[in-house]
User: Fold these one by one.
Assistant:
Number 1:
Amino acid sequence: MAPFLKSLTLSGRRIVAACVRHHSSFTTELIGNMDKKAAWDRFYTESSSGSPTFKHFEWFFGFDSVRDFVMPLLQTNSHSDALLRVLDMGCGTSALGPSIYRHSLLPVQVTCADISPVAVRLMQEQAQAKAIQPHNPSSQLRFVELDCTQLLQHYGSSSVDLIIDKGTTDALLRSKEGKGKASLVLKQCLEVLRSSGSLLQFSDEDPDARLLWLETEAQQPGVMKADVGVQEVGELRGVCYYCYQVTPRLIVK
């Protein structure tokens, strides 16, 4: 993978040209309530009803579009522990987490977590009906109901190697009451990541806006300092998408 186009500390932000903003095809009811468990339960219930077969729902794009951002990080984060811990945060019914489990050469424990028990159940049923064979026989795949604002209740500090956020922060930031939750999620992600770990935020939000938000949040009391890089993922239906790589930085007292 080519190095990130912009690799910088949060104390020095560089503005990048904006692209067209994304407007999803979600219902008006869901837009503005993307931080609500009930809204996602309803969404996944309705999207799965009337269909005889399970279909993964990809917000933005699938694994093939982002594998060159994800898989190299697993190689560089190898450590003495038996398994690399990967969290697909706000997985919905995406195939991203299962695809990492399937393709990783190194042993990984992939946790696909979502606030909606409906989405988690659908993923579990699909995994049971169509078993996925991992490249590494020691790899593990789990599906967990999890509110991403409560990561520290499920993970210890410095225990996760890679967190993937494909649109979860976007959903929170675009909700009526979700901005505070997005801030809490970022804080807890930095807390549970190993010093060698990374948070990848995949988003259509322009770098000038997202980097400013990350910079502001990293200056809040009690938030671990971080470095961030951004690279363009590509264009889908006329919309530019980006990958923001956020890594915790040890605080020198």
Number 2:
Amino acid sequence: MSTKHEKILQYIESLPVGDKISVRQIAKEMQVSEGTAYRAIKEAENRRLVSSIERVGTIRIEKKKKENIERLTFAEIVNIVDGQVLGGKSGLHKSLNKFVIGAMQVEDMMRYTDAGSLLIVGNRFKAHEQALKEGAAVLITGGFDTTEENKHLADELELPIISSSYDTFTVATMINRAIYDQLIKKDILLIEDIYVPIEDTAMLRKEQTINDFHQLNTRTTHGAFPVVTNNNKLIGMITAKDVIGKDGVEPIEKVMTKHPISTSMKTSVASAGHRMIWEGIDLLPIVNDDSVLQGVISRQDVLKALQHAQRQPQHGETIDDIVKNEMKILGEEDLVVEFTVTPQMTNQFGAISYGAFTTLLSEVGSIALKRKKRGDAVAENMTIYFIKPVQMESILTVIPHILDMSRKFVKMDFDVYNGSTLVGKAMMMFQLLER
């Protein structure tokens, strides 16, 4: 049975793209309090089902698929550039394919402007009109206005005209950054991408018995099951270990693990895998904010997904990628890594930042473990004994030493040199992600 929160989200998702909604309208339509409606609308915004714009309202926008997440809607553009909508509000839900900077003659601009584009231009009224006629939206920089005729045309064609006080370069940079962030998000695997939904999840009710567990175990060959109420609220987990030596008629509620570890749809697969290894569990239930079961994920699902993700090309460049690009592996037998400090990796004093330094050591540690054929690992903790200021464009040499290695953990020591001077020393504990 769905909660009020879920019913509101389902209702919002069923609305046509472009519809406007409000807290009062949702509260009246769904017969809930305005507080409940407000929380559901905020959740819908987090899920990218709607976009709220100052002085315009909240609009149902197209929910983007993972492979198409880098496309932004015009409603999102308004929020990115702190814009004001001058006309064409009914087209804010539409997505843009590309943006064009109008720093040329109008005729030349139109060669690059087509349907689904966003023309970024100053107070050039003719260019605004021509872009709308070509099927493109318009973003006017410098806080300028447009003509009343162009506003009417925008309303008629359902193509937004947006005004922003920022200059053209700043606006283009902000939009580019937003698209870039979406590309990085696209690369990150979340639980919602790989989980087994509740319809396909084998589970037990709290009033069932250990005999029911054995029957389900025989039928599915699974060794663990979530235990739920009649409303599918998660109240426990039961595994083969819990039922050893127990009477078959004993209720599951008496032997299950209460208040089990669970996670949400928006958790990253890497984070879930780390927790499963750390807690020693093979099956992780996925719940919503009201603890209602949404599905499950197994350790095998996590490992397969991580292995698959490693083989995929990345679209967005993260800090980790920037650090990796500056690493040069030396040494056939004993690993030595040479690393160049770029301006992006420095703090306000022009020395290597703490974040870049820790990322460097984590990456070197991962390479050292792969050389030992120990598979994937995550840094559990780090102790930095000391780090001296290292200026940009310095070339560092990192030498890792494995101090101790077990089936699950590896302790590693690092010496960092700038030329012949020792500039950093640290120790890290890695947790191995193995079956």
